[in-house]
């Protein structure tokens, strides 16, 4: 529904002032009910049954449905529900949510319920709602780890909304370009709305070729960062900075690179945790009535199945002996490795050999479910060269030198470069990397007081190993001891081809661990992937500058 005079305006709804929110919702309610009454009376005058919502009313009702379920402010939830009831009383069908909660992989009852959160989480929810105008499903899954979520929201807010080299509509368009590389319609839909909200030209959404040449020129860097960052050279950077009419400044390019890597890795999180479509977005709601069994064919075609089928765990609700043994075996291996570390240390030559072996073996880790996914037209039009995807870096005889962290690291090189060209962002990213890497509750499944640092480091370094990045002081022999095949398949899929992640993959690793622990794994994957992409891009920028 267009925001014509006297019609629906959402201004003031995100206010922290309850009176301002109430006034905004009163105005919204009056506009919605006027439109609904007009539709109902028009149908009655013609002796017709009341039609479904039309003329944009459906979109407004979907937004109200989202607010009634997902707003952290109880007054907004209640008023939104009352407006929907008023519309329903006029005989107009109102929408209902599709799916079951913020994640298709995690039972809704095991996620944090809006309205039942503690004070710390409520503050985070309110902050997120005030900033984004919604409490999105990513936030509702990330909130398993409030310390990380706070850092993530602060960083994302700075990148998208605070002072910076790029105009606001460019930022959202770059987010669309990045998410589209992984066919992540969830993120694309959110940023299409945000792009239009900040005054972006709707024509740009018809395809990348309709965007300014400056943004089109970013397409090559976008696809390499997303799929083969090891191929980025200083020549690619030079091409962007020295194009006469449509050149990027160094500060603009740093901003763009951080946005691209942020949304590539956020696409990994979205697929890795099975994030559901937002209630008010396509695929998140339906106007069809539920069947008697609350299970109808329209749900199936949208990818939603019965709640029991969706959330049935392969191990069932009772811990199987096999999965309990899996946890015990992993803890025993950690203990043995620690003892070996204390007794002897491998030579540098042996450490290098073990890295090369792990790097080579990572090429052959793939899922039996591995299939080419065709990008939907709506998403693929936001990027060029749809056939360009992830390729293992040393396949087909192509050799890429190992990236040694001792020669170029985030701490000693990348951090200062980002902070110099885009002040404060280096600090925000550094804090987020550290929180993800060091986050621990000293638990493993049902065990408490466990030092998980060895396991967290193995996950982080395995991801960097897949990107050819080597730490001289790490024994890569530990990875094969700690990460089994099903876990490696999940990691590689989520990091390299996230759009191919399935619930079966999510269920098949760490079967006795909590969902919060699997989300924790995804935070490590997100940040390790983002840092790997940044290292390649920032090294190329540094080489260009010197």
From TrEMBL:
Coiled-coil ranges per the record? none
Q: Does the keyword Amino-acid biosynthesis apply?
A: no
Which InterPro entries does UniProt cross-reference here? AhpD-like, Sestrin
- SUPFAM superfamilies cross-referenced by the UniProt entry: AhpD-like
Signal peptide position in this chain?
A: none
Any one Gene Ontology molecular-function term assigned to this protein's record: oxidoreductase activity, acting on peroxide as acceptor
**GO BP terms, alphabetized:** cellular response to L-leucine; cellular response to leucine starvation; negative regulation of TORC1 signaling; positive regulation of macroautophagy; regulation of response to reactive oxygen species
Q: Where in the cell is it found?
A: Cytoplasm
Q: Name one Pfam family in it.
A: PA26
Similarity field: Belongs to the sestrin family.
- Known PANTHER family for this protein? P53 REGULATED PA26 NUCLEAR PROTEIN SESTRIN, SESTRIN-1
Entry protein name? Sestrin 1
Gene symbol of the encoding locus: SESN1
